Every structure is written in C-alpha cells, then in structure tokens.
C-alpha cells in the first residue's frame, strides 16, 4: 500500500511518494507526507512502521542540520546516505531497530545527482532508479524497460506517470507527492 519511487537523470532526480499511511491492509491516513528535507539539496523518502518512519527520518534530519551548524557546510548526498546507513545498521543491532525502507535523493556540485536505495536491513546502493513498497513489484519492470541514463525531465515525468498509472490501476494508491531536484533547487510538483 505504501510506495516510493525515484528516477535519476543526467542533472536531476525525480522522486514521488504516495500519501497513504498504512499498516497491513488498513489505511490509517490519506494525507501523509513521506518526504523529509535534509538540506537544500538532499531529500529523504521513508516508508515502514508508522512510528519508526517519522522518528528515524527526523533523527537523521536533525543530525544532518547539526553537522552543517558545527562544520559550516552541508553533507554531500553520498555522505548523508552513508551516515543514514550507519545509523540504521547501529539501530538494527540494538534492542530498538527501526523497520524503515528509504530512498535518498540529492544533488552534489562535484558528483551531480544521486539516488540511494536503503532497506530495513541497512543495505545501501546507488541506483539510477529505485522503488519501495507493494508498488515496486508492479513498476520495477517498467523502469527496467524504459529507463535510459540520458532521460530528459519530460521523459522522466512520462516514465513516472506510467509507473503511477500502473500502481493506481491496481488500486494500491491514488494520491502522490512529487519532488524534483535539479542543480541547486528542490521543486515541489
């Protein structure tokens, strides 16, 4: 029922998340925002257990902001992804593990755009496209078939629309938040 998707282009990352907060087959909320702005160039998308998602994402968000205040500069998307993975791994080995699946999207001045896939077992992979949730079972084949590294923004939007139509046709989710990271800007679509 919960669904995250990300598509990386040459100079942008396009991400979307559904608005449903669900547990098993019960939909608890239909206006839930699963995106957390870590910095001006980094966005974290989080799904999983209801309490874990907000608590873990806000913990990462506040620590990334603290890093900027202490050091005078922001973490790169790769550094933020590794910091997030390390914390997720530490909590996995504690008495209070977080059951969350994450996508981290960002833009770095030297490395360009980046999309990072993390699961609840704290595995981390940089990916050109990624999806989490039940909708991933339906849309990863579409992404695999139509994704190209040189996608334009409009082509990426068309690909995202195909994926959302597929998820909507299965009645998993119908409302989505969209964000677009391009160079220095984060846009809400």
Automatic annotation (TrEMBL):
Q: Which family does it belong to?
A: Belongs to the peptidase T1B family.
Q: Which Gene3D superfamilies match?
A: Glutamine Phosphoribosylpyrophosphate, subunit 1, domain 1 (3.60.20.10)
Q: Name one Pfam family in it.
A: Proteasome
Q: Provide the protein name.
A: Proteasome subunit beta
Question: Mind telling me which PROSITE patterns this protein's record contains?
Answer: PROTEASOME_BETA_1 (PS00854), PROTEASOME_BETA_2 (PS51476)
Q: SUPFAM superfamilies from the xrefs?
A: N-terminal nucleophile aminohydrolases (Ntn hydrolases)
The scientific name of the source species is: Amphiprion ocellaris
Q: Which GO terms describe its biological process?
A: proteasomal protein catabolic process
Q: How does it assemble?
A: The 26S proteasome consists of a 20S proteasome core and two 19S regulatory subunits. The 20S proteasome core is a barrel-shaped complex made of 28 subunits that are arranged in four stacked rings. The two outer rings are each formed by seven alpha subunits, and the two inner rings are formed by seven beta subunits. The proteolytic activity is exerted by three beta-subunits PSMB5, PSMB6 and PSMB7. Component of the proteasome complex.
The cross-references to InterPro entries, in alphabetical order and at most eight, read: Ntn_hydrolases_N, Proteasome_beta2, Proteasome_bsu_CS, Proteasome_sua/b, Proteasome_suB-type
Q: Which GO terms describe its cellular component?
A: cytoplasm; nucleus; proteasome core complex
Localization, UniProt? Cytoplasm; Nucleus
- Keyword Cytoplasm present in the record's keywords: the answer is yes
Q: Which UniProt keywords apply?
A: Cytoplasm, Nucleus, Proteasome
Functional note: Non-catalytic component of the 20S core proteasome complex involved in the proteolytic degradation of most intracellular proteins. This complex plays numerous essential roles within the cell by associating with different regulatory particles. Associated with two 19S regulatory particles, forms the 26S proteasome and thus participates in the ATP-dependent degradation of ubiquitinated proteins.
């Amino acid at each position: 029922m919960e669904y995250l998707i990300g598509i990386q282009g040459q100079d942008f990352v396009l991400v979307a998340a559904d608005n449903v907060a669900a547990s098993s087959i019960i939909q608890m909320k239909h206006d839930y925002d699963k995106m957390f702005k870590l910095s001006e160039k980094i966005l974290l998308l989080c799904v999983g257990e209801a309490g874990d998602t907000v608590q873990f994402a806000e913990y990462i968000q506040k620590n990334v902001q603290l890093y900027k205040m202490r050091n005078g500069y922001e973490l790169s998307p790769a550094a933020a992804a590794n910091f997030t993975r390390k914390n997720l791994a530490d909590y996995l080995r504690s008495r209070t593990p977080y059951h969350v699946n994450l996508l981290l999207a960002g833009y770095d001045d030297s490395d360009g755009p980046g999309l990072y896939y993390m699961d609840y077992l704290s595995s981390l992979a940089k990916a050109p496209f990624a999806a989490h949730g039940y909708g991933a079972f339906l849309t990863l084949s579409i992404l695999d078939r139509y994704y190209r590294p040189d996608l334009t923004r409009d082509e990426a939007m068309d690909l995202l629309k195909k994926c959302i139509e597929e998820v909507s046709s299965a009645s998993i989710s119908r409302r989505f938040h969209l964000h677009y990271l391009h160079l220095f800007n984060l846009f809400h679509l």
